[in-house]
Amino acid sequence: MRDKDLYQKILGIESPWRVTDVELFLEASPGQVIVHVELEDGTPLSCPHCGRQVPGYDKRQKRWRHLDTCQYQTILSAQIPRVECPEHKIVQTRVPWAEPGSRFTAMFESLVINWLKATTTSAVAQQFNLSWSAIDGIMQRAIDRGLARREAEATHKHLGLDEIAFKKRHNYVSIVTDRETGHVVHVARDRKKETIKSWYASLSEAQRTGIQSIAMDMWPAYIEATLAAIPDAEHKISFDKFHVAKYLNDGVNAVRKQEHKALLKEGNGILKGSKYFWQMNPENMSTKQRRAFKELRESRLRTARAWAIKETAMDSWHYISRTWAKKAWLRWYGWAIRSRLEPMKKVARMIKKHLWGILNAIVLRATNALAESINSKINMIKARCRGFRNKQRFINAIYFHLGGLDLYPRPVC
Question: How far apart are the first and last CA of the chain?
Answer without folding.
Answer: 20
